[in-house]
Amino acid sequence: MSSLKKEDIRIVFMGTPEFAVTILDTLIQNDFNIVGVLTAPDKLAGRGRKIQQSAVKIYAVDKGLKVLQPTNLKDPLFIEQLKALNANLQVVVAFRMLPKVVWDMPNYGTFNLHASLLPNYRGAAPINWAIINGEDETGVTTFFIDDKIDTGEIILQNKVPITVNDNAGTLHDKLMHLGAQVVLQTILMIEKGTVTRTPQTFSQQLKQAPKIHKETCRIDWGSPLKQIYDFIRGMSPYPGAWTILQNNGAEIFLKTYKASMELEDHKLENGQVLCTKKEMKVAVKGGYIRLEEIQLPGKRRMETGDVLNGLKLMETAIML
User: Fold this and answer.
1) pLDDT digit string (tens) for 150-208?
2) Which member of 15, 37, 77, 106 has the greatest number of CB atoms within 10 A?
3) Are residues 182 and 39 in the same domain?
4) In angstroms, what CA-CA distances link 176 with 25, 160, 168, 170, 216?
5) 3-state DSSP call for residue 244?
6) Would the pTM of this model clear 0.90, i.e. be above it?
């Protein structure tokens, strides 16, 4: 492919959440020609059923960009609208699976930014699962989209360490900023005609990142200390790891967002709760999980010490 000028590249950007906004903003700041933006349709949300727009739409409208919000990506009317933008490159960040009629449209292809080091952690929740599984590094990957999920030929990858204090929120932000630079590099490679394509490997041993459901978020107090700690931070700040606190005959739904580990040999039952006026810790294999930020039903997320001011725990309290 011969070298292009920046003004020759006409980009349609596809994305929905805040993660995607940072990448779109980087392209705008670097003077790329964004001829259109695809994002999720508006929806009714909250108790007041108010119309909620995606983070990408709010940003795009503010920048005066043309916005399309198709409900059906195969709708002939939408396909004509997309063709009319005359894009020759499509960039996808946290959007949804595209039909071939869409991803195969531009001359220079459609590439996606994925928040993992593919081929590991294909799927909807790669940031959460990398932490849950105790990884010490992850990264971002750009790849050309094909007809399956996260399986296309890799263009670029870049790594970032996962520290023991990272949670899904802090890692999200690291990957968001790293991803913006990798997307920028990818487009510059396309501009210069220096893109390489590396096929992904396929193996039963690859780690997956499936969508997280409520049942997925329950803490298993029979797991080892480090595994529970990684699970809690991998679910924080969203969607939040939860458990059932059995106290004085009542069962209380409890979410935990921040915890720490205390290595210590003991002979207590897994899940047994030890409390002082300011501290709550749970006995597990190899030590204790100290709960530092928790949330009770109908309440906001609070430091555990503040919650204990209004919650009297019995000596028989246990996490189920």
Assistant:
1) 999 999 999 999 999 999 999 999 999 999 999 999 999 999 999 999 999 889 899 99
2) 15
3) yes
4) 12, 11, 12, 10, 24
5) strand
6) yes
Contacts of 67 by beta carbon, 8 Å cutoff, 6+ apart: 36, 37, 38, 39, 57, 60, 61
The residues of the chain scoring below 50 in pLDDT are 1
Alpha-carbon gap, residue 275 to 273, rounded angstroms: 6
**Helix, strand, coil proportions of the chain in percent (round to 5)?**
25, 30, 45
Tell me how far apart the alpha carbons of residues 35 and 67 are, in angstroms, rounded to a whole number: 9
CA 19/CA 48 separation, integer angstroms: 26
State both tokens at 266. 């003991």
By residue range, what is the domain housing residue 52?
A: 6-192
Cis amide prior to 297 (ω within 30 degrees): no
Backbone angles phi, psi at 24, to 5 degrees: -60, -45
Mark whether 142 and 264 lie in a shared domain: no
Q: Looking at the structure, do residues 158 and 237 belong to the same domain, yes or no?
A: no
H or E element that contains 59: helix 55-62
Does residue 176 lie in a domain region? Answer: yes
**pLDDT for the residue 291:** 97
Taking the C-alpha atoms of residue 81 and residue 89, their distance in angstroms, rounded to an integer, is: 15
Distance CA 38, CA 314 (A): 54
Q: Supply the mean pLDDT for the chain.
A: 95
